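Retro notes (design track)

What went well: tokenization of the new backbones is finally stable.
What didn't: we kept losing track of which sequence belonged to which structure.
Fix going forward: every design gets posted as structure first, then sequence, in one message. First example under the new rule, 385 residues:
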């Protein structure tokens, strides 16, 4: 067993900056108690009163798919491609994952870009591990969709749908209706097979992938502007989707609607310029506005838009503009875990959870904040020199 002693613990499950010890057995956390006594054969790490947190989570990024080595996140040959899988594009040898690890990020939701109305599935991965199988949590975890300028710009210059927001919403609805009808036929086909009856069912890879949203697969819809957010919420209601609004840049304009919808909201990237029209009204205090209003949200760098090196500085900037420190820690741990439907295994330090832990050499959201030791699944994957 591994015992981490003298943790200034931020567990995200009721302990906030109190001295505790954490016991890890195998890949899981076994105990979180005060004054744990190591037994013969145990390994001990003395945190020395430094802050210890769960591994941080990036709930929306493009690591290993869009960098100097290539751009494999957007299949720009048609606006509806639910059959695509980002797992087939990820370069797990990209040094961007190492940068994430050295930032204290242990879990990443990696997804397709936003050039298409429906772009394929996200994969959930660890930033480090001995094998690819060990690093991949879920090969297909969520369906990526997009509204707004990106799909419009991509296809309007080809003189095809969508060239307007109306066209984008119509294509999204059309695909969802087709998938719903396909699912009904698939279920009827399965029932016939169970009864030993013949079936004339015809398999369709795209619809087979998309129909899973009617079984609870998370749907992550890229939407910056308030009108796009409203359309995404409207579509979510119409089809009963397990919905996440990605970026939600103008969410601060529509607090009551966000609260009523009760979707997941992922804010960011916030730092950097306003390179396109739909982010003209982004603001550093939008997380503080949502926090004050009681809307749960989390944060993203959208890396590579903000490189992983900017993960901690972005949070620090948001704190400077009114976000409370405690909520900031929640956003990068348990809230992010909930936003990707992974709160049963990550996001807190408590018995039974994955032993993804960070011992911080200095406070993460202060100037120069950096990890000293990062564990993933109970194994040390980074140790500051």
């Amino acid at each position: 067993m591994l015992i981490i002693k003298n943790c200034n613990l931020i567990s995200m499950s009721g302990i906030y900056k109190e001295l505790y010890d954490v016991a890890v057995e195998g890949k899981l956390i076994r105990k979180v108690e005060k004054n744990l006594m190591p037994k013969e054969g145990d390994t001990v790490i003395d945190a020395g009163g430094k802050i210890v947190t769960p591994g941080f989570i990036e709930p929306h990024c493009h690591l290993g798919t869009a960098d100097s080595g290539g751009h494999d996140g957007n299949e720009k040959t048609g606006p509806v491609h639910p059959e695509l899988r980002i797992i087939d594009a990820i370069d797990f040898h990209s040094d961007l994952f190492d940068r994430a690890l050295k930032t204290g990020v242990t879990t990443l939701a990696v997804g397709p870009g936003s050039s298409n109305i429906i772009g394929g599935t996200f994969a959930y991965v660890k930033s480090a591990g001995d094998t690819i199988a060990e690093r991949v949590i879920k090969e297909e975890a969520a369906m990526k969709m997009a509204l707004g300028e990106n799909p419009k710009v991509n296809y309007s210059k080809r003189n095809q749908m969508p060239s307007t927001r109306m066209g984008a919403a119509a294509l999204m609805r059309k695909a969802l209706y087709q998938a719903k009808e396909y699912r009904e036929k698939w279920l009827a086909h399965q029932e016939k097979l169970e009864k030993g009856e013949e079936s004339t069912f015809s398999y369709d890879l795209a619809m087979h992938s998309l129909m899973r949203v009617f079984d609870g697969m998370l749907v992550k819809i890229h939407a910056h502007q308030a009108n796009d957010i409203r359309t995404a919420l409207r579509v979510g209601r119409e089809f009963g989707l397990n919905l996440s609004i990605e970026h939600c840049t103008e969410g601060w304009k529509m607090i009551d609607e966000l609260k009523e919808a009760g979707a997941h909201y992922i804010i960011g990237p916030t730092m950097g310029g306003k390179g396109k029209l739909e982010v003209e009204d982004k603001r550093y205090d939008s997380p503080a506005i949502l926090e004050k209003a009681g809307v749960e949200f989390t944060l993203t760098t959208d890396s590579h838009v903000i490189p992983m090196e900017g993960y901690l500085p972005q949070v620090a900037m948001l704190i400077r503009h009114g976000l409370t420190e405690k909520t900031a820690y929640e956003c990068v741990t348990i809230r992010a875990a909930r936003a990707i439907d992974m709160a049963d295994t990550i996001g807190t330090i408590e018995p039974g959870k994955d032993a993804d832990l960070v011992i911080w050499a200095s406070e993460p959201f202060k100037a120069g904040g950096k990890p000293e030791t990062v564990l993933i699944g109970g194994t040390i994957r980074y140790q500051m020199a």
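Added context from the reviewer: The radius of gyration is 22 Å.
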